[in-house]
Amino acid sequence: MLDQTVAQQSAHKTAVTRLQLFIAFSRISLSSFGGAIFWARRELIERQRWLTEREFLEMYTLGQLLPGPNVLNLTVMVGYRFGGWSGAASAVAGFLGWPCLVVVGMGILYQNYGRLPYVQQALGGMSSVAAGLLVATVIKLALCCRAVASVDFWRARIHRRRRDALAVALGHGGACAVGCLRRVEVRVMEELDLGALFLQFLILWFLAIGGPSTIFPDIHRYVVEAHHL
Amino acid sequence: VTGEQFAEIYTVAQVAPGPNAMYVTLIGWYLAGWKGVVATTIPLLIPATTLTMLVGHLNERYPDAPIFRAIRRGLMPITIGLVCAGAMILMRTVNHDWHGYLITMVTVAVVLRKPWNPLWLFAGGALAGILGFV
User: In terms of DSSP H, where are the helices of A69-160?
Assistant: First the structure.
């Protein structure tokens, strides 16, 4: 299978409808327990064959450099590639619409039944499986990377060393600078002001380079220390 | 109480299907119901719909620009490293003893070798948990 993915490197663009995008990303997000990247990889590469292993990795890498959830950025790029603006919109609607409803539903269920020992135990077993899926994704991506990217990387280093190295340095420098400036003042409020909440989260997400985990401490600070809950 | 509630919200969102970042949606729900959901979820969308769309567009249009070539080629291993780090953190957080690690390892082996739908693995994990294995 790996040899196959190496062979089919050429950028092919399959015809994909908006509905197909919506359905595929709905399926990704509704099955992604404990992290979406495993399911995105499975759906886009193995099931639909819209992307090669390498294209997936390239898009995901770009998505990681941009602020916001990595797989959401991937969703936007895949949707845009196959269907332009409306394609991106359909993909995002599928990717975020359902989990929005489901997560609130689960929140309500958890409020009522979360203390049951069986629920806790089942959740424990399921999170171990989720960890395993992520490890398997790493192994599959690393096998592809070893086969393709590292060769390319070294070739680029030899031939166009200065320009590429500069570009990498600039990208990294920018990301680091934003990361350093990223300490956001959290306004403590007595009353819940939805407009301020919106604004605060908006600023945070624009700074979330490298994924949502990077702003986790800020959100924690905002929600817990501002005594909103 | 607030710190604990936050941790619980986070755990529920982790277990729920969907991207992990959806915990902000749940926080919005706890804060202000549906209005809160909108106030916390729309900001998550805005960088993706503006910046990412722009970069995605440029990347499709100018695939040979040095910056995109450099990102694609040079940063790929870093991407894999980041996902790997995430996997390690998750593994250490959720597994408390060798039982948990065994389930994780069996999952890895099955996923790498068999084309089964991993939802069956989740069912198995839930069953193992209920039977008191974890």
Answer: 70-113, 117-144, 150-159
Q: What is the pTM of this model?
A: 0.74
Please report residues of A whose CB lies closer than 8 A to that of B113. Answer: none
Enumerate helices (H) and strands (E) in chain B, giving the number of each. Answer: 7, 0
Mean pLDDT by 10 residues, chain B (134 residues): 66 76 85 86 86 87 80 71 72 82 92 84 88 81
Backbone angles phi, psi at A209, to 5 degrees: -75, 130
Which candidate from B43, B79, B104 shows the least CB-CB separation from A198? B43
For every residue of A148-208, DSSP letters joined together read: IIHHHHHHHHHHSHHHHHHHHHHHHHHHHHHHHTT-PPPPP-SS--HHHHHHHHHHHHHT-
In chain A, what residues touch B115 (CB-CB under 8 Å)?
Answer: 46
Q: What ipTM describes this predicted complex?
A: 0.76
